[in-house]
């Protein structure tokens, strides 16, 4: 359709993508073979058949198993390069990429291996595709704060390669308040801060992320709409929400894309953006996410423009890069 074409060619920024969640089944099997890693799945068809989730934890179990094939610097490079090539092909002009260092260091892969591979891909992609990039390191919230603090310490030799810190993994029972001190330390060190909140957890977790962690963006934030006062505050303070429609559908946060809250977010004046989260697992990159919500919710061309503009407004990139697209 016309609007589909319009979405595809529109310059976009992607602010919520877990690089480990861009590991397509084909690459997972190839890296498993290259590194001699035994997986429970022997074919692309078997893997895809396993991608039927009922909630976040269901997905995370497979996501952590999948990342076990990533062992060498080249693996991290190849993973990020494949994502960046796809992103550039969808006219994503700026991308801020999450990675989960503890998902690797906890199984004996050095922080240096991870960061060197990702960094080399980012620099190669900037040259080859002309996009701009940033890296955001996430703490796994199902693990304790002491481990997050050690991870922050481990990152310091590469301070200049990391723009921010985030918080992901199992939300329920792991409130933002659990990470108050490590986020304070990160802010003191000059990192931008974000946190997943209100994906499955309550509106209160969104409030905690703002008040206790002082984050500059909320990842997801869907459940904030349960609380009218919080919704009004998010609008007044122009707090960006990095919304991930296909993720919400696949993890059963919404029963049907027609029930997705994105349109309510826009009508409430929230600074919503559209992102892919874990594109290899949820069935689409950023353009497919835009198309899915546009069709299910009947978003207008103006809504699409607002969403794309919001993605640059909410980005942590240089003001000059921002102005080029706004
Ligand atoms: N939510 C929480 N943690 C995650 C996600 C997500 O959608 N993807 C990868 N880690
Ligand atoms: Zn996420």
TrEMBL record:
Binding site for substrate: 278
EC number, as in UniProt: 3.5.4.2
CDD domains: ADA (cd01320)
Reactions listed under catalytic activity: adenine + H2O + H(+) = hypoxanthine + NH4(+)
UniProt cofactor(s): Zn(2+)
Signal peptide annotation: none
Top-level taxon of origin: Bacteria
A GO cellular component annotation in the UniProt record: cytosol
Cofactor: binding details: Binds 1 zinc ion per subunit.
Positions annotated as active site in the UniProt record: 199
Name of the protein described by the UniProt record: Adenine deaminase
Species in which this protein is naturally found: Enhydrobacter aerosaccus
